């Protein structure tokens, strides 16, 4: 058969041969092979430390009876300036997981976007979604890949929440996993966690407010209270802005609903109640 | 020294086409049709894990017939194509048209360059914002691309199914009616090849059903299985009109041996 090309690969204007490699179900592995310039954190310069890029700040997460939630303030700062008043720092990443991000905003948002694609990509190719532990390990790998940038001062620290469909006790199937800039992965068995500059104050507040058997409503209230405390003492965290109508964003994950972002009216109502509660408290003390 | 066998390009193409066509006709059929709420995929598939129908992207679905390993390669490549494009630009920039063109080019070059063509036929479907924007593309093994409406039939004996569906598929139908129509279409082959007694067997067709549901917020693709599918299936009929229709399936020559007339 001289008049046929018997080469293993094929050329032409169709899909590139890298698209047909049987190697991996991972989107980032595929991008690394097919279009490496699209991956975040490729060009590192040591001088990045001096760069005044926007940073995101406080994220809190806590479990409740039958689910888990994650909430974040809306501020990004650049040095002593407010870079953004209404940035979204918590994101739904798939049907039963969500990620909040603190650290360099630009890199963090890109990382979450890639992570969301990664989870859906795996699910589509394999026909089943990753296990909850698989998802958290994947995120650890992505944080680790950013280590060089972190050394240059551009750290990204995510906070992961997910609902474990395989858990034995459906009431306590909500899980929280935190990370350090080097990619360390830590499951938060206490039932609450926080990251970002205001997390010290937020966690102190949650320590008193947290109730593992609370319902969703009470848990949302506790999260917003904690964010209020963070904004109270940390200049880089933004509190509820009643003038501009900017309120914390909250994502809840339950078995029935999956991961959903609470509608702004609901977070507004909770935040207004928190602010009113604090005002009343101060009023009593003053009189 | 032996001379290499000479075959004219024309003959080569013809032989490859025949090979692919035979391979595709040997399998079971897939029907893809438009309905009021989006696009419905119904495949005859004895396996519950080796899918013929799959999600490609938020609004794009994929159905294929033929050799599993070959269309599985295409499916994975399509997901990679779509995800990469959506990541690089925006989720809205991923379209079925671009994917169908890439598939067509790939299948075309495989057909002309490789010793053996892919024995597959593929349908790429997309739901738009309204029913008028729904798209169905059919890709053939030689790189042909066809914009079809309102339905696509691929694999196995397509002619009796097309004949059956031609007058009854209506993009205005609801999901339940559309599913009943598709199943009736798939049964047309079973009855035509086996004559009587086939309807009972056809009732037990193992189905793989999925929809691209326009109403779903982001990812429109949803598999229907188990209780959700049971609830939508038409009531099993006791007496199917036997020996539905026969002609058409001639050149494909299926396992049942297509008798010209009963």
Automatic annotation (TrEMBL), chain A:
Q: Which GO terms describe its cellular component?
A: proteasome complex
Q: Which CDD domains match?
A: proteasome_protease_HslV
Q: Where mainly located? A: cytoplasm
Q: Which Pfam families match?
A: Proteasome
Pathway of action: Protein degradation; proteasomal Pup-dependent pathway
Its UniProt entry gives the catalysed reaction(s) as: Cleavage of peptide bonds with very broad specificity
Q: Give EC number(s), comma-separated.
A: 3.4.25.1
Subcellular location per UniProt equals: Cytoplasm
Query: What's the subunit arrangement here?
Result: The 20S proteasome core is composed of 14 alpha and 14 beta subunits that assemble into four stacked heptameric rings, resulting in a barrel-shaped structure. The two inner rings, each composed of seven catalytic beta subunits, are sandwiched by two outer rings, each composed of seven alpha subunits. The catalytic chamber with the active sites is on the inside of the barrel. Has a gated structure, the ends of the cylinder being occluded by the N-termini of the alpha-subunits. Is capped by the proteasome-associated ATPase, ARC.
Question: Protease: present as a keyword of the record?
Answer: yes
Protein role:
Component of the proteasome core, a large protease complex with broad specificity involved in protein degradation.
Q: By what name is this protein known? A: Proteasome subunit beta
Key word DNA repair present: no
In the record, the note on similarity to other proteins reads: Belongs to the peptidase T1B family.
EC supergroup of this enzyme: hydrolase
* NCBIfam families noted in UniProt: 20S_bact_beta
Which superkingdom? Bacteria
Q: Active site: which residues?
A: 57 (nucleophile)
Q: Which InterPro entries match?
A: Ntn_hydrolases_N, Proteasome_sua/b, Proteasome_suB-type, PSB_actinobac
The UniProt activity regulation field reads: The formation of the proteasomal ATPase ARC-20S proteasome complex, likely via the docking of the C-termini of ARC into the intersubunit pockets in the alpha-rings, may trigger opening of the gate for substrate entry. Interconversion between the open-gate and close-gate conformations leads to a dynamic regulation of the 20S proteasome proteolysis activity.
- Keyword annotations of the record: Autocatalytic cleavage, Cytoplasm, Hydrolase, Protease, Proteasome, Threonine protease, Zymogen
Kindly give the Gene3D superfamilies that the UniProt entry links to this protein. Answer: Glutamine Phosphoribosylpyrophosphate, subunit 1, domain 1
Q: Give the propeptide segment as residue ranges.
A: 1-56
Name its species.
Amycolatopsis ultiminotia
Automatic annotation (TrEMBL), chain B:
Location comes to: Cytoplasm
Any one Gene Ontology cellular component term annotated for this protein: proteasome complex
Q: Any known activators or inhibitors?
A: The formation of the proteasomal ATPase ARC-20S proteasome complex, likely via the docking of the C-termini of ARC into the intersubunit pockets in the alpha-rings, may trigger opening of the gate for substrate entry. Interconversion between the open-gate and close-gate conformations leads to a dynamic regulation of the 20S proteasome proteolysis activity.
Query: Any idea which UniProt keywords this protein has?
Result: Cytoplasm, Proteasome
**Pathway linked to the protein:** Protein degradation; proteasomal Pup-dependent pathway
Biased region (Basic and acidic residues) positions are 236-250
Q: Which domain of life is it from?
A: Bacteria
> Where is the segment annotated Disordered?
227-262
Keyword Aminoacyl-tRNA synthetase present in the record's keywords: the answer is no
Please name the Pfam families in this protein's record. Proteasome
Described purpose of this protein according to its UniProt entry? Component of the proteasome core, a large protease complex with broad specificity involved in protein degradation.
UniProt record similarity statement: Belongs to the peptidase T1A family.
**Subunit note:** The 20S proteasome core is composed of 14 alpha and 14 beta subunits that assemble into four stacked heptameric rings, resulting in a barrel-shaped structure. The two inner rings, each composed of seven catalytic beta subunits, are sandwiched by two outer rings, each composed of seven alpha subunits. The catalytic chamber with the active sites is on the inside of the barrel. Has a gated structure, the ends of the cylinder being occluded by the N-termini of the alpha-subunits. Is capped by the proteasome-associated ATPase, ARC.
Please identify the protein, giving its name as recorded: Proteasome subunit alpha
Q: Which organism is it from?
A: Amycolatopsis ultiminotia
């Amino acid at each position: 058969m001289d008049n046929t090309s018997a080469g293993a690969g094929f050329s032409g204007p169709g899909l590139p041969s890298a698209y047909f490699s049987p190697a991996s179900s991972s989107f980032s592995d595929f991008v690394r092979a097919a279009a490496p310039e699209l991956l975040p954190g490729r060009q590192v310069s040591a001088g990045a430390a001096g760069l005044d890029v926007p940073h995101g700040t406080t994220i809190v997460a806590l479990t409740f009876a039958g689910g888990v939630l994650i909430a974040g303030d809306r501020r990004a700062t650049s040095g002593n300036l407010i870079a953004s008043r209404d940035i979204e720092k918590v994101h739904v990443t798939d049907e039963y997981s969500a990620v909040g991000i603190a650290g360099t905003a630009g890199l963090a948002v890109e990382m979450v976007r890639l992570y969301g694609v990664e989870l859906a990509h795996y699910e589509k190719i394999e026909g089943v979604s990753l296990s909850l532990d698989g998802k958290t390990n994947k995120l650890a790998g992505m944080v680790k890949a950013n280590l060089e940038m972190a050394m240059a001062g551009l750290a990204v620290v995510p906070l992961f929440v997910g609902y474990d469909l395989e858990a034995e006790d459906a009431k306590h199937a909500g899980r929280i996993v935190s990370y350090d800039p080097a990619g360390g992965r830590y499951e938060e068995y206490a039932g609450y966690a926080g990251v970002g500059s205001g997390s010290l104050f937020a966690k102190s507040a949650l320590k008193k407010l947290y109730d593992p058997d609370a319902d969703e409503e009470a848990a949302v209230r506790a999260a917003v209270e904690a964010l209020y405390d963070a904004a109270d003492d940390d200049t880089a965290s933004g509190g509820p802005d009643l003038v501009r109508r900017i309120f914390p964003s909250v994502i809840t994950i339950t078995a029935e609903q999956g991961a959903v972002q609470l509608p702004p009216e609901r977070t507004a109502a909770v935040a207004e109640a928190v602010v009113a509660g604090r005002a009343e408290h101060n009023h009593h003390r003053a009189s | 020294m032996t001379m290499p066998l000479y075959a004219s390009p024309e003959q080569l193409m013809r032989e490859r086409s025949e090979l692919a066509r035979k391979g595709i006709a040997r399998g079971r059929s897939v029907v893809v049709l438009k309905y009021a709420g989006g696009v419905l995929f119904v495949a005859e598939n004895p396996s519950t894990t080796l899918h013929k129908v799959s999600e490609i992207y938020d609004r794009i679905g994929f159905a294929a017939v033929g050799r599993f390993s070959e269309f599985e390669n295409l499916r994975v490549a399509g997901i990679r194509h779509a995800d990469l494009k959506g990541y690089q630009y925006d989720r809205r920039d991923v379209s079925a048209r671009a994917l169908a063109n890439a598939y067509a080019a790939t299948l075309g070059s495989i057909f002309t360059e490789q010793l053996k063509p892919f024995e597959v036929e593929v349908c790429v479907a997309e739901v738009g914002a309204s029913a008028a924007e729904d798209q169905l593309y059919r890709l053939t093994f030689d790189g042909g691309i066809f914009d079809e409406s309102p339905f696509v039939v691929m694999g196995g004996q397509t002619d009796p199914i097309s004949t059956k569906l031609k007058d009854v598929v209506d993009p205005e139908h609801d999901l339940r009616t559309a599913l009943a129509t598709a199943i009736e279409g798939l049964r047309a082959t079973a009855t035509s090849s086996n004559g009587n007694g086939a309807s009972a067997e056809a009732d037990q067709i193992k189905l793989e059903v999925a929809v691209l549901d326009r109403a779903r917020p982001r990812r429109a693709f949803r598999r229907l299985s188990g209780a959700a599918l049971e609830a939508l299936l038409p009531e099993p009929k006791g007496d199917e009109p036997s020996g539905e229709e026969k002609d058409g399936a001639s050149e494909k020559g299926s396992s049942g041996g297509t008798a010209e007339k009963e």
